[in-house]
Design goal:
The chain is of the alpha+beta class and about 425 residues long. It has helices at about 10-20, 40-55, 65-70, 85-90, 90-100, 125-140, 165-175, 220-230, 240-250, 275-285, 290, 295-305, 320-325, 340-345, 345-350, 360-370, 375-380, 390-400; strands at about 1-5, 5, 105-110, 120-125, 145-150, 155-160, 185-190, 195-200, 265-270, 330, 335-340, 405-410, 415-419. The protein has 18 helices and 13 strands. A hairpin with a 2-residue loop joins strand 1 and strand 2 (about 5).
């Protein structure tokens, strides 16, 4: 901290007081001049329907509007409406008059090198309307193409971007944005990526390292509470877990916050599926409800990290559970690897395993994966006390005649690759 003309290190108490600070909840302030006539009838109807579904209150569609607004703390005892009321329910003209920076801008480009946008749309709408309108725009074939996953003899279709994931990201952007900064929420669309950026950096105490574990502290707390009560989000603070879990279940890269800075949070979703087998492996878990119900976000992350070969990032508490469930196995070199059910989702492995032991194929796969290639001596070492040297050579030479591995070089210089 600065002391006069110099700097000194803060003690623990001072540091704690700084990270405990919260931005004032702008959304709970009274919006002077805002009246019930400034509220959008469609937004109000959407809110009533959501409350009726979430809270099992059929009367929510007939209760006087003033009463609902009071129940949600969107109006004070003197009848004054708050900024949260404007943002959730206000007509476009009212938002433009009282809070013109509450804007969402979408720009679509065909590729990442394109400077000028191919299409642009601006939304200055109440959240209870905007959330669906924005998704409808993103969910067009050009913006959200179908990906084709090879599960021979079937070809499975998976959209590049998941509705629940994008919706959670949008709501997060809306409740965490700084309304005292004049910037819009920007959504940049590409056929293979969605980028959502909102003004204002991470809240105090939140960073890339703890984004999944720190308690949520939305800048617009009143907005977040109303959104939770209406069921648009399951529970405040759970959105990041849902986004990460959904991406893993669909075999896609993790949500990317790495482009964020002190002035904006930048979140990127990548649409490609780099490994059909992991997508099928994850979907296979999802289709077994009893199995899926036992996994939390950290278990899914552990599966993702082990698949990527980054065992150091795995959550240690998750590994024993995943071992017991048969989703991972211990490995002498990697520590842990995905179980053989993962490799069996690769069509050529599935076919080859009818002639070879799947555990032997898995060992060959892991040995090659270690450095991208392997020598015969690497395989002999890996199969020590399991197969003789002659049996290893027979196995590798046999696998070279399948679509699984190939070789180049001669004699001792021969190297083997996973095809």
């Amino acid at each position: 901290m600065r002391v006069g003309e110099s700097l000194r290190e803060m003690d623990d108490a001072e540091y704690f007081s700084v990270i405990s600070e919260q931005d004032p909840d702008f959304s709970s302030r009274v919006c002077k001049g805002l009246t019930l006539n400034d509220l959008d009838a469609e937004a109000i109807e959407n809110m009533r329907r959501l409350i009726a579904d979430k809270q099992k209150r059929p009367d929510a569609t007939t209760v006087p509007l003033n009463q609902i607004l009071k129940d949600l703390l969107l109006i004070d005892d003197d009848g004054n409406l708050k900024y949260a009321t404007l943002l959730l329910l206000g007509k476009s003209e009212a938002i433009n008059r009282y809070l013109p920076q509450a804007n969402v801008v979408i720009e679509y480009r065909n590729n990442h090198s394109q400077v000028r946008y191919s299409a642009r749309q601006e939304y200055r709408l109440p959240l209870f309307i905007a959330i669906e309108k924005i998704w409808e725009y993103i969910d067009q074939p050009a913006c959200n193409p179908l990906l084709h996953v090879n599960d021979l003899p079937r070809i499975l279709d998976c959209p590049a971007f998941n509705k629940e994931t994008i919706r959670e990201a949008l709501i997060n952007a809306m409740i965490h944005r700084s309304l005292q900064m004049g910037s819009d929420i920007f959504i940049h669309l590409y056929p293979d990526m969605v980028e959502i950026s909102n003004p204002g950096g991470f809240p105090y105490g939140v960073n890339l390292g703890n984004i999944l574990t720190v308690n949520s502290s939305p800048r617009s707390r009143l907005m977040a509470e109303v959104i939770e009560k209406t069921g648009l989000i399951e529970r405040s603070g759970q959105g990041v877990d849902i986004m990460f879990t959904n991406c893993i279940k669909e075999g896609k890269p993790l949500p990317d916050y790495s482009y964020s800075d002190d002035y904006q949070v930048d979140l990127r979703f990548y649409g490609e599926i780099p490994d059909d087998a992991f997508y099928l492996f994850a979907q296979g878990i999802c289709h077994q409800q009893e199995l899926e119900s036992k996994l939390n976000a950290f278990d899914w992350l552990t599966l993702h990290y082990i698949w990527k070969g980054n065992v150091e990032a795995a959550y240690k508490d998750s590994c024993p559970k995943l071992l017991e469930m048969g989703l991972i196995i211990e490995d002498s070199y990697f520590g842990y690897v995905l179980s053989s059910r993962y490799l069996l989702y690769k069509p050529h492995v599935r076919t080859t395993s009818q002639r070879y032991d799947i555990s032997h194929i898995q060992t060959v796969y892991n040995v090659i994966r270690r450095n991208g290639e392997a020598s015969m001596s690497d395989f002999v070492e890996a199969f020590d006390s399991i197969l003789t040297q002659k049996q290893v050579r027979t196995l590798i030479e046999g696998l070279c005649k399948t679509p699984l591995i190939s070789s180049h070089g001669n004699a001792r210089a021969t190297r083997y690759h996973w095809v």
